[in-house]
Amino acid sequence: MPVRKDQKIIDETERHAGAEKISKASSNNMESDNQKKNFLDITALIRSVQRAEGHTDCFRKGLKDCDEVDCNWRSYCLEGH
Asked: Is the pTM for the entire model greater than 0.70?
């Protein structure tokens, strides 16, 4: 079927707009992933410090009866209990 020149231009414009939407969506997903990588996992960090200090790595594991009374993180860990 023959395509008129003006119709072909419209089709190419629509195709370009569709590709641009896909590209923006992909870019937004990449930005979201990069933002997540920029944040530090505080819980994992504190548990690592607990292990290095010779304590049980129990930060925010929901232990209500914690016997680690000399742990520096105890008050933060038990805040919600």
From this structure: no
